Amino acid sequence: MKPIWIVCWRGLDEVRMSREDALDRLEQLDALGIEAELFEVRDGRRRKLC
């Protein structure tokens, strides 16, 4: 099963299909001064990465 990446910010969960895309989004939000968290969902388990 392929992992799903979730970027959480200001109460929103954005689903990203690749780690690179999720990390790019995290950088965009950081550049705007918005705190965000990155999660990986694999086999139904959500794991915080950043």
Written account of the structure:
By secondary structure, the protein is of the alpha+beta class. The chain has one helix at 19-31; strands at residues 4-9, 12-16, 37-42, 45-48. The protein has a four-stranded antiparallel sheet, with helices on one face. The mean pLDDT is 94.
Q: Globular, elongated, flat, extended or rod-shaped: what is the shape?
A: globular
Strand tally is: 4
The secondary-structure element order is: EEHEE
Number of alpha- plus pi-helical segments: 1
Oligomer: single chain
Q: How many angstroms does the end-to-end distance come to?
A: 22 Å
Q: What order do the strands of the largest sheet run in, or round the barrel if closed?
A: 2-1-3-4
- Biggest β-sheet, characterized? 4 strands, antiparallel
Strand content: 35-45%
Instruction: Enumerate the spans where pLDDT stays under 50 for 5 or more consecutive residues.
Output: none
- Mean pLDDT level: 94
SS content category:
alpha+beta
Helix content: 25-40%
> Rounded to an integer, what's the Rg over CA atoms?
10 Å
